[in-house]
């Protein structure tokens, strides 16, 4: 059994190091150079942009899930008379905003020549939503509705998921797409890990906290300031010095058919397989339904069943969700080698 354990440990160690080395390196491989679709400088810039997208996925998910375990205690602190039914509105409105805005931003992105402006706008939504979340205690009245507005803005920022997934499909070749998509999913899962770990990390500040420049910083509001700071960094990375649009998928399609004169014709010749696409959409919808239900019910049930204090619930539930997200990270790291 010791030999078997050593084998699997060595396998995961080699696989993890191989994947890490591939991720860090941005030198153009011979297989890509042989395609003749881009220079080494263009390849390097394309992969820098893709890694900015990875960071965006990380930030969006960490901002979305970091309040999952603290939303109910925070609502009780802001408005002790708020019913539990209002918590469901707080969890539902981000998904509603994404449902309404995703088609609109998708249409805008298809019309525009770059995703930079739409992406920067949704990042601004994220920053404003998190700052509002952090300063709600300074608002004298209608705090629960201010919290609802904050959640709506954060929900609007999740439109970035639509934008960066579309970008990844256009900015990668067929050979790169599975690996890149798995790394993007890994970045999202790391955001879930970070979001789950952020709340128990700041739980030590306590509910009273301290004052900074007239604003109260406690175990709830510190999360908002932290996510807003990540959003500012993300906004800077979307500037032209770091991020540029690349559409190598069209170049690859055109190189495979010399009769195609432009990128639009290249997209039109691609045949969509609607049945597997539909099945994947249904599977993803069911997955998100289960995740949203877990987020909504976890904190109230834990507080009622275990008689925890607010600090204890943030700490223990944060550890629980972090452990689950770490397991997901391992699975995503294994995805690319297993697909081969």
From TrEMBL:
Q: Which keywords does UniProt give here?
A: Membrane, Transmembrane, Transmembrane helix, Transport
Top-level taxon in the UniProt lineage: Eukaryota
Q: What is its main location?
A: membrane
Q: Which residues cross the membrane?
A: 52-74, 86-105, 117-136, 148-168, 180-203, 223-243, 274-294, 314-335
- Spell out the InterPro entries in the cross-references: MFS_Domain-Containing_Protein, MFS_trans_sf
Membrane topology of this protein: Multi-pass membrane protein
Subcellular location(s) of the protein: Endomembrane system
What would be one Gene Ontology cellular-component term for the protein? lysosomal membrane
Q: What is this protein called?
A: Major facilitator superfamily domain-containing protein 8
Organism this protein belongs to:
Culex pipiens
């Amino acid at each position: 059994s010791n030999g078997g354990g050593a084998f699997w440990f060595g396998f995961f160690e080699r696989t993890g190091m191989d994947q890490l080395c591939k991720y860090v390196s941005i030198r153009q491989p011979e297989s890509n150079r042989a395609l003749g679709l881009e220079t080494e400088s263009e390849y390097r810039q394309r992969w820098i942009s893709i890694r900015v997208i990875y960071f965006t996925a990380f930030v969006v998910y960490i901002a979305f899930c970091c309040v999952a375990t603290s939303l109910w205690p925070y609502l009780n602190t802001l408005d002790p008379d708020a019913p539990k039914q209002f918590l469901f509105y707080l969890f539902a409105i981000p998904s509603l905003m994404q449902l309404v805005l995703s088609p609109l931003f998708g249409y805008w992105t298809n019309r525009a020549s770059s995703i930079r402006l739409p992406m920067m706008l949704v990042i601004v939504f994220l920053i404003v939503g998190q700052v509002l979340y952090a300063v709600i205690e300074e608002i004298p009245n209608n705090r629960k509705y201010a919290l609802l507005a904050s959640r709506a803005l954060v929900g609007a920022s999740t439109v970035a998921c639509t934008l960066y997934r579309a970008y990844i499909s256009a900015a990668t070749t067929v050979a790169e797409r599975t690996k890149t998509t798995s790394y993007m999913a890994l970045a999202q899962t790391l955001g879930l890990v970070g979001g789950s770990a952020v709340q128990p990390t700041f739980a030590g500040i306590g509910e009273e906290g301290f004052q900074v420049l007239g604003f109260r910083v406690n175990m709830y509001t510190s999360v908002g300031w932290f996510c807003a700071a990540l959003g500012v960094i993300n906004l800077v990375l979307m500037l032209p010095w770091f991020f540029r649009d690349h559409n190598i998928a069209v170049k690859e399609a055109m190189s495979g058919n010399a009769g195609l004169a432009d990128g639009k014709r290249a997209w039109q010749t691609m045949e969509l397989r609607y049945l597997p696409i539909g099945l994947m959409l249904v599977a993803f919808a069911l997955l998100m339904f289960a995740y949203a239900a877990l987020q909504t019910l976890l904190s109230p049930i834990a507080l009622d069943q275990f008689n925890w204090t607010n600090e204890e619930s943030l700490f223990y539930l944060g550890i629980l969700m972090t452990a689950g997200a770490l397991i997901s990270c391992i699975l995503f790291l294994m995805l690319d080698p297993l697909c081969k």
